[in-house]
Amino acid sequence: MLTAEHIFSTALAYSLLVKKNQQQDRIKIVVYGGNGFVGTRVAKALYEREVCAVCLSRTGHKPLHLKDRKWSESVRWCKGDASSPDTQLLERLDGLVTLVGSPPVPTMSKEAYNEQVFTNGTANANAIRAAGEAGIKRVVLLGAQIPSPLRSKRFGYAAGKKLAMDAAEEFSKLSNEHRAIVIQPGVIYGRRYLKSGKAISLDTLFKPMSWIMPWQFVSVEKVADRIVSELLCNEPNKDQFIVIKNNQI
Ligand SMILES: NC(=O)c1ccc[n+]([C@@H]2O[C@H](COP(=O)([O-])OP(=O)(O)OC[C@H]3O[C@@H](n4cnc5c(N)ncnc54)[C@H](OP(=O)(O)O)[C@@H]3O)[C@@H](O)[C@H]2O)c1
Q1: 56 C-alpha vs ligand 1 centroid, how far in Å?
Q2: Burial class of 70 by CB neighbour count within 10 A (0 to 12, 13 to 18, 19+)
Q3: Could you tell me the domains of the chain?
Q4: pLDDT tens profile 70-115
Q5: Do 241 and 170 touch, CB atoms closer than 8 A?
Q6: What's the sign of the alpha-carbon dihedral 60, 64, 65, 67?
Q7: Cα of 189 from ligand 1 centre, angstroms
Q8: What is the pTM of this model?
Q9: Quick one: which atom of ligand 1 is closest to the CA of 59?
Q10: 79 close to 57: Cβ distance less than 8 angstroms
């Protein structure tokens, strides 16, 4: 005979099973560089759309300023280097966001030049290639809008960004199902947090500049929202490789 206790425990087991299946059904996205200025906003935007986010960085820590933010507990903050990606992890995920990079500083030595190319180029390109090998079909790369006089091989930052963009284009040609989106902001403004948790607001200077030069400045929230909407876009017949400039973000 069925008792109330029996019915209750069966209902509980069923609800747990449904929850587990729902978790398994959720889209899972890996974000290389996910602990940074843009990466943490992408993680939050993914959380708001009920997507599982795995934020990878070389240190692997959750940024200090997020320690009391409830949403950040739903994100996995792990160690992972884009330049030598974990293919087994990528095989379990549905999409890649890669936003590893450095500020566009001029280089005075061969080592510094190579470092810029490696950080902005090789690291992202390796993550994109590994995503292709792991069966991932959607990649969003955060590049940069570089003024034309600086778009030269002699500028390590530009050479690196080009290398990563070429890898994204190659990815899009893997099959009809593959799509790569490159987002190229100019200057991104918003609140940036230091490792100590201290905030620096870039809004005071850059927000008014964005009204005067909308083609050159964009807010970090807009960039993160665009990354996530491109990542999750299900519209048919979209181009397999697209480049989005600052004023289109
Ligand atoms: N901020 C801007 O105004 C702006 C404008 C245009 C384009 N961009 C581009 O946008 C991207 C993101 O910029 P951001 O300002 O968010 O940079 P950010 O705050 O420095 O964040 C990048 C994060 O990437 C991680 N990282 C570095 N190398 C890595 C690697 N090999 N593997 C995994 N993680 C790595 C770093 O953490 P760990 O040290 O812990 O690894 C860092 O926290 C960059 O490519 C940048 O060039 C930025």
Answers
A1: 11
A2: exposed
A3: 27-248 (3.40.50.720)
A4: 999 999 999 999 999 999 999 999 999 999 999 998 899 999 999 9
A5: no
A6: positive
A7: 14
A8: 0.91
A9: 40
A10: yes
